[in-house]
Amino acid sequence: MSIDAREAAAALSDIDDMAQRVRQSQIYRIAAQILMLWGPLTAIGYMVSWGWPRYAGYGWIAIDLSGLACSFAISARGRVRNGTRVFDNRVFAALALLFGFGLLWSVGIAHFTPRQLGAFWPIYIMLVYSIVGLWVGYAFVAIGVGITALTLLGYFFAGDWFEPWMAVVNGGGLLLGGFWMRRN
Length: 184
Fold this sequence. Notes:
With about 180 residues, the protein is mostly helical.
């Protein structure tokens, strides 16, 4: 039994489609774990900023460094387990550029207030999520746009409760996004 060129092309297209879905599923699984890590860490950071504003800078540095280390460990474990590489040298370079540019603007040029910093960083990071989502999967776009909209809402209307608002919106949004991506 033989197949013609049209049937062969259709079969190859089906195989390619399945491979794309498997790759997206693997990326979502690793990204879900990373989001579920960063959600509580981010919530803790905002609560430290609210409860002990004098130590907020130190708290965020500790949270960011521990979160990055754990994210890299999750990625390495995912690569060993299923061969999906999330972090490579390009990602390290992109993260360095991302944080360098953010620091340049938030501390070097604009000298943001603590409240402005509390809104700038999630909006800035969610812009990256949304852009990445255009290639990787629309769940990233939904998470990015949703958290950005809620951040702006809180910035303008939450008053003195901005940090607790952000603990729920940003931290909770990342955690919820992780659970959502894990199901897909």
